[in-house]
Design a protein that fits this description.
With about 300 residues, the protein is mainly alpha-helical. About 70% of the residues lie in helices and about 0% in strands. The chain contains twelve helices and no strands.
């Protein structure tokens, strides 16, 4: 069929116009979906900022960032966010020290070494971990992991950040391994064959060719794992304790930002009180921490690509 002078590819003008209209409608629908996710994020940030402003009218930013005590519900109130930030960072660090290496090694094995039968069996079973309720993980940490760790550290308290962090690490392994494996599988086979042709072994190809080529997807998996670990609530609320103490020792109990939000959001405080508004200030801090980690991951990935 010869193309028509109007560029419609030989189709009738009405059919061509209908096809263009459908494509435009699909484009607008996709744009609307993208803008909706952005609007939701901006809305959440806006609500946190708006609700936090009354809190910061009573509490100076310097006190909020430097006071080593967090007791907004006591008669002698202190509003230093450092104890909650320390608890959040310690549990997140323990979780990442477990999840990132294990998840990455698992992804490399499933992508480069495992047979099709093993991959199709192990990957769905691993992803089943994401279907387990987090409250179950919390009691698993409290009733199994902590007693096990007390066999190693006899003076380990019943509530501690180590057991909570380890269980959170187990929780986020599927996120890291599944997304990283998908990114590695997306690397073209020609890239692997070129490495093999140069005399590289399978492991050398996996570590020096496939992983750098899939770094963008792996970094996205890491960012998702970090965000998931920072935002975890039930495990730390059950297993890490509810004591806002400023400590960097994972063998001690502490309270995280999410655990404090759960503690205060039970409806016991009147709306508009300084204690009630403190949860929005804590939530805003958590949002900024998550944003900071995501930006740092993006910058590290960008710097790696320039060096690579």
């Amino acid at each position: 069929m010869k193309p028509s002078p109007d560029g419609s590819g030989g189709c009738p003008r009405g059919a061509h116009s209908s096809r263009v209209a459908r494509e435009r409608a699909i484009e607008w629908a996709l744009l609307l979906a993208a803008l909706t996710s952005v609007a939701v994020t901006v809305g959440i940030a806006g609500v946190l900022v708006y609700e936090s402003l009354p809190f910061f009218r009573h509490v100076s930013l310097a006190e909020f960032l430097t006071d080593p005590q967090w007791t907004p519900l006591f008669s002698e109130a202190h509003y230093g966010i450092l104890p909650l930030v320390a608890g959040t960072l310690v549990t997140t660090a323990v979780a990442l020290l477990m999840a990132l290496p294990v998840g990455t090694i698992t992804a490399i094995y499933l992508s480069e070494c495992a047979t099709l039968v093993v991959r199709e069996t192990v990957k769905p079973l691993l992803e089943l971990l994401t279907a387990v309720p987090t409250v179950v993980f919390g009691y698993f940490a409290l009733l199994f992991v902590t007693p096990f760790l007390q066999l190693i550290w006899a003076d380990l308290p019943g509530f501690n950040m180590l057991s909570a962090g380890l269980v959170i690490g187990v929780m986020i392994i599927p996120y890291v391994s599944s997304l990283s494996e998908d990114a590695m599988r997306a690397v073209p086979m020609d890239t692997r064959e070129g490495s093999y042709a140069m005399g590289a072994t399978r492991m050398q190809t996996a570590l020096r060719v496939v992983v750098p080529s899939a770094l963008s997807g792996i970094a996205a998996a890491y960012a998702l794992g970090i965000s998931r670990a920072i935002g975890e609530t039930m495990v730390v609320a059950i297993a890490a304790g509810m004591q806002p103490t400023l400590t960097w020792n994972p063998l001690e109990p502490a309270e995280t930002i999410t655990a404090y939000i759960v503690q205060v959001s039970l409806g016991d405080l009147p709306h508009g009180s300084i204690g009630y508004q403190s949860i929005f200030a804590a939530g805003l801090t958590l949002l900024l921490m998550t944003l900071l980690f995501n930006v740092a991951g993006y910058l590290l990935r960008k710097g790696f690509w320039k060096a690579y």
